[in-house]
Fold each of these.
Amino acid sequence: MTKKDFTRLILSGKRDILQDFLAALDETRRPSKRQKDLADILRLIETRPALKRKIPAALKSKLSF
């Protein structure tokens, strides 16, 4: 699945953004992978700001928006 396909799934509501990006909170993951997860979340929020409401506070504190 391409990033474009994945983004379409998120924006269509067929997939839950929280389930896909909880890995960004997993401290056992490599830091580079967590940063990639956070960047993906920011990219989605830029295209659909309403998604910001769905992100838990623990994750929001790691994002810079």
Note: The mean pLDDT is 77.
Amino acid sequence: MTSIHRILGTIIIVLFLLLMFWGVILRLAGRRDTPVAFWAVQHWTENVLIVQTVFGLVMLLIGYRVTGRPLIWFHYLYGSLFPLIAVIGGRIAALRREQREYVGLAWGAFIATALTMRAVQTACGNSFAEIAACFT
């Protein structure tokens, strides 16, 4: 069960990174409109994030806990609440612009990537080796 949680977390990080770098490339290219595929990836990222959050809450309710780390409650905040806020904030920023909606979405993805990686760090450890071991 926890391996599904890890796989979903990895997918979320990859999708956030994709949105972030795609937004940078679009901006550097001077594109004014947001591609339909960009919106599709954004929606799928939000859907996977919601599934991951619900899955994490179910794991919490049935007794799975991250143990052995100080301040582990940060994992629950960084892992669910903050990325959702970043996605919603990015969406609001994108909707308030008439052109280049992808800029707000890319900023939201950047913030959500950082917060999701912080959730991984609070669950797995501080060193790169501990984080890599967490995904294997």
Note: Residues 2-28 form the longest helix (27 residues).
Amino acid sequence: MRTISVILAGAVLASCTAVPPPPTRAANAQQHYEMLVAGKVPQAPMSCLPGYRANDMIRIDDNTVVFRDSSSRVYVNHMQGPCTGLADTNNALVTREYVGPGPCSGDIARVVDTMAHMTVGSCAWGEFIPYVRPGTRA
């Protein structure tokens, strides 16, 4: 009986520590993502986006947003959980207005259907991972 308890406890612990598989993307979204980070090296994650320009935001899928800083630097954000409807071109990601640093990890963003003018989802920003072309100055 004790052996069964130990095996069950081990199975429960193993299921809690299993790493979830990375999100899968449509082929065209994966290709776009790879193009944006091509030739760039990931740096240490940052809690907040250093500057925020909404026009520089590129939606990859319901989980990933890329901010283009320049041809040498992009910031990748994997939302904390999927942001349902984000990839739909009829929807917009709505955040509060930022003065100074942009969104920070944990800030809430809403997905709004621009045709119906209603919120269709929400999610929290994850950490911002800078991808920088080697030799680029900070």
Note: The chain has one domain: 41-138.
